[in-house]
């Protein structure tokens, strides 16, 4: 059956959109880091976990029909590497940074022993990337390193992943979509609620001029 130009155009635009939504959310954060060099408010364990997860997602998606998600994931993974490289110099290492390494060992064991469980495990593993940021943003002393636009775009990414994974019941994609949406809402709410208070606290307090004795 011949494919009409209108159908081809729609399919092409949609495919490009699915790929783009995997990459675009990270670009504002990358631009902010490149411009200011300030990673304040970002989580180093979350960034390291992201490196592990992007690699594992590429392996997982390569065996599915979700080509758009696969290409978007590969490109986003490359951007994530650059973001982590820029941020790691300004973030303190802690014992929590060991967790991504342990997570990588778990994923390798699952791939070797029970590959059918990889999708669901990766979906849950996205908690390692998003939860430290979604929780930490409520108590971080500064939010200057966070790009709200990135989190708005990540919210859209979560919705796209959920929608793309629903027809084929791609468990990993469904769980990732839910985690991504919930975490984005948490960060955006924290930025909205806490930013005015942090700005007010950072503003210099006017000190009255000393009164000279006559």
Question: Could you describe the 3D structure shown?
Answer:
The chain is mostly helical and 214 residues long. It contains eight helices and no strands. It has one domain. Helices cover 71% and strands 0% of the residues. Helix 1 runs parallel beside helix 4. The longest helix is centred in the C-terminal third of the chain and has 32 residues, at 171-202. The chain crosses the membrane at residues 12-30, 42-62, 68-88, 100-131, 143-162, 169-193. Keywords: Membrane, Transmembrane, Transmembrane helix.
- Given as residue ranges, the uncertain stretches (5+ residues, pLDDT < 50) are 1-8, 202-214
Question: N-to-C SSE series?
Answer: HHHHHHHH
Counted beta strands: 0
N-end to C-end Cα span: 99 Å
Question: Taking all residues together, what is the mean pLDDT?
Answer: 76
Radius of gyration: 21 Å
Give a quick account of the main beta sheet: strands, pairing sense, barrel closure. Answer: none
Tally of helical runs: 8
In a few lines, what is going on in this structure?
By secondary structure, the protein is mainly α.
Topology:
Layout: H1 5-23, H2 27-36, H3 44-61, H4 67-87, H5 98-113, H6 118-136, H7 148-165, H8 171-202
Question: Any descriptors?
Answer:
about 210 residues, 8 helices, about 0% strand, globular, disordered N terminus, disordered C terminus, transmembrane
